[in-house]
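Quick one: structure tokens for this chain, please?
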Amino acid sequence: MYFRLRAIAQVSKAFVHNIPLPHPLIFKTSFKVYIMGQNQALLNDWHIVADARELQPLTVLPKRLLSEDIVLWHNGSTIFAWQDFCPHRGARLSLGRIEKGNLACAYHGLQFNTEGKCVLLPATPDQPPPNRGFIKTYHVQEKYGIIWVCMGTPKRDIPHFPQWEDSASRKILSGPYRIQASPFRVLENFIDPAHFPFAHHGTFATSNHPEIIFDELKASSSGICLDFKFWFKDFLVENNEDVVVTLLPCRYEIFHPLVVYFQNGIGTNDYLSIYCAITPIDENESQLWLLFGVMFGEDVTDASFLEFQAAISKQDTRIIESQRPQHFSLDSQKEIHLPSDRLSLAYRKWLFEQGILNSKVQYRT
């Protein structure tokens, strides 16, 4: 009640004295908003928000990132990402439309130019718009066929995916897959090879051969790299229940809090590269995006490959959404840690060093 009355008082004061209103998130007392929306390290990084094919010229698209509603719009030549909030009466701008290169609010028709400034009041067109008639704008760019947004000040480039630029590599985009879980739990699942033989038994691994051979783990302030081998089952072979193809050499590379580069089949001609990116929608809601660079299986259609990947993601989602606590816990007393968790523990420690997590990781395996 206190926060509600305080918000009303600030709004009234603003109208009387022409004082700028604070960011709307100040009135939200949710723990989720505080954690996700106020984490400066995450705000200053790039995150996927949409498949570029979703946003056609002269269209408007609602999205959500870091507990904040955002609007994407395309004026015919350029993509924009803004806070999904009209400063007049708080309506969602994503309900609006494009008019003469501007974004028009669906409620009272106020038009905002590409800089986020209000330039037209349809009810009183001869009156100049208020000086405070600005929308909060974000950095946005398209890369690898997807749209990325940075809500703060970008501190680094979008992570590189070399196979996407390789003409010999077949490119496939899979997802997004919506998962009701912390984005860090989703990524931690992806970098955990010990779950392959059990969560994905009968697809590309087998519980009859659960052994993982770990090589040296390399960690620095710039990222983490781990080489390992696991028993791979060829998913292109029908009825492959008892077929073990090879002990496959693989590599994980982490250079971004929510992006992983994975190579399957290092040193072979038939390798598969995966660029895994997690969108942090809310504290316990995520989207999984997978970009593939494929150098095998020319007889397999993209549709068949995507169907297979959807089945794998469904297997993962079932497990991830069952985990407790739902948020990403750093309490070393609530979990046990095994020798096979080495990359996961290195990732948690690295997140702390990057300022993503605020509790130091002190684990022993």
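The CA atoms of residues 181 and 284 lie 4 Å apart.
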